[in-house]
Structure formats: structure tokens, C-alpha cells
Amino acid sequence: MRKHYTHEGLVEEQLAPEPIGQFTRWFHEADDAGVVEPNAMVLSTADAEGRPSSRTVLLKGYDARGFVFFTNYGSRKGSELAANPHAALLFPWIALARQVIVQGPVEKVGRDETAAYFRTRPHGSQLGAWASEQSSPVSGREVLEQRYAELERRYPEGEGVPVPPFWGGYRVVPESVEFWQGRENRLHDRLRYLADPAAPAGWRVERLCP
Ligand SMILES: Cc1cc2nc3c(=O)[nH]c(=O)nc-3n(C[C@H](O)[C@H](O)[C@H](O)COP(=O)(O)O)c2cc1C
């Protein structure tokens, strides 16, 4: 399973002045290279005692304010974020020998932003959000299917589905963003942006040993 990385390097001179610009370049390159769901990212949270947990979620938007995903606020990740509003995101673009790691505090997005996104979801996914008490034990699949069928009767296709009050978006506000590029002989490139109000674009960059 040992793989030799012969990819082009990542050099300071070619980096975008701020991490969102750099992320945009790499995100498009991952998409162009055929990475399956390049917006899939591993979200890590920790409970009040610092015990970590991870799961995959989909990136649904990003800009200078941060990285947005949508979920159930009552889920395990939701309870952990309520107790400890900090997270890490990891984009595993293995086919390109790349990963991006974002760390920072997390805030809920506004209800308007959640509602606007919810309306773009297919009808079935809207009902699914209502049907699932995410992360709670359920006695069997049939319970979920029955709930879904009841919701379908109540909100047939074409009927507006209200946004569940327990469902919405989170924004991870980046404080640090690391770009990792696999290179030959394990001399990988790791360039990390750190938020720094005193730096020119609001960010300074440091190189880390691989
Ligand atoms: C490719 C992929 C994408 C996923 N996207 C989401 C998502 O955007 N939001 C979400 O709540 N769960 C998503 N999930 C499910 C989560 O990984 C997880 O099972 C769920 O959110 C419950 O996590 P928790 O119990 O740790 O809170 C996705 C799973 C996979 C494999």
C-alpha cells in the first residue's frame, strides 16, 4: 500500500493571499480531477470533556465568513457543538494526494439562510429531515418508514414543507487552514494559514514539517 507521491509542489509564492482563495482553487481542481463528492468533509467535534467524534458531512457553501453544512441540531454533533462550539473539517482529496484541514469556532447560520437552503432540497429530503431524530436509537427501520409515510400524506409532493425547527446550518469560522500536498520521499508540503489581524491580508502563512 506504500505509494510514491510525485505530485507538483505547493510553494509560498503561488499561494493565494487568503485561504478561501486557495481553497477555491483546490476545490475546483479536485472537481476537475473527478474526485467523487469533493465537498464531502470529515467534521470532528468534541464533547465538554474533550472526547472527540467524527463523521462525514457535505459542504454546502463557503466564503470569507466560513464553511457551511446542514444537519440536525439535536444530533450528537449538535449536542457537542452546543457544549463546545469548536470544530475541525478535513477534506480528504486522496486522488490528488491532498488534504485541507480547517479549524475554528462554530456558529449557527441565520434562520433565513437555513430556510433558503431547505427550499432547494428535494421534497423527499425535506420530509426525511422531519422523519429522522438523528443520532437517537430507533427500534427498527419500519418506524422511520412509517413516519415518512405519515409525512408524505400530510405534505404531498408540491405542498410546501416547513423547515424543521431542530434542523439547520452551522458555519465553521476558519482560524487556521492547512493545505497538505504529498511529495516525493515523504517531504510533503504543508502550508498553514493562521488568522492574524496584523498581517497584510489578515492571514499569515507558515510551513510545517511533514
Ligand atoms: C458522503 C456523506 C455525506 C453526508 N452528509 C451529511 C450532511 O451533510 N449532514 C448530516 O447531518 N449528515 C450527513 N451524513 C451523515 C453523517 O455522517 C452522520 O451519520 C450523521 O450526521 C449523524 O452524525 P452524529 O450522530 O455524529 O451527529 C453524511 C454521510 C456521508 C457518508
From TrEMBL:
Give the residues the record marks as binding substrate. 2-5, 60, 117, 121, 125, 186-188
**One GO term (biological process):** pyridoxine biosynthetic process
Instruction: Please verify whether the record's keywords include Repeat.
Output: no
Question: Which reactions are catalysed by this chain?
Answer: pyridoxamine 5'-phosphate + O2 + H2O = pyridoxal 5'-phosphate + H2O2 + NH4(+); pyridoxine 5'-phosphate + O2 = pyridoxal 5'-phosphate + H2O2
Under Enzyme Commission nomenclature, its number is 1.4.3.5
Specify whether Flavoprotein is a keyword of the entry: yes
Please list the coiled coil stretches.
Answer: none
Residues annotated as domain Pyridoxamine 5'-phosphate oxidase N-terminal: 31-152
Cofactor entry: FMN
Entry keyword set? Flavoprotein, FMN, Oxidoreductase, Pyridoxine biosynthesis
Q: What class of enzyme is it?
A: oxidoreductase
- Which part of the chain is the Pyridoxine 5'-phosphate oxidase dimerisation C-terminal domain? 167-210
* A GO molecular function held by the record: pyridoxamine phosphate oxidase activity
Q: What Pfam families does the record point to?
A: PNP_phzG_C, PNPOx_N
Tell me which InterPro entries the record gives.
Answer: Pyridox_Oxase (IPR000659), Pyridox_Oxase_CS (IPR019740), Pyridox_Oxase_N (IPR011576), Pyridoxamine_oxidase_dimer_C (IPR019576), Split_barrel_FMN-bd (IPR012349)
Q: How is the cofactor bound?
A: Binds 1 FMN per subunit.
The pathway this protein participates in, as annotated, is: Cofactor metabolism; pyridoxal 5'-phosphate salvage; pyridoxal 5'-phosphate from pyridoxine 5'-phosphate: step 1/1; Cofactor metabolism; pyridoxal 5'-phosphate salvage; pyridoxal 5'-phosphate from pyridoxamine 5'-phosphate: step 1/1
Binding residue positions for FMN: 55-60, 70-71, 76-77, 99, 134-135, 180, 190
Role played: Catalyzes the oxidation of either pyridoxine 5'-phosphate (PNP) or pyridoxamine 5'-phosphate (PMP) into pyridoxal 5'-phosphate (PLP).
Q: Which family does it belong to?
A: Belongs to the pyridoxamine 5'-phosphate oxidase family.
Q: How does it assemble?
A: Homodimer.
Q: In its UniProt entry, what is this protein called?
A: Pyridoxine/pyridoxamine 5'-phosphate oxidase
Supply the gene name. pdxH
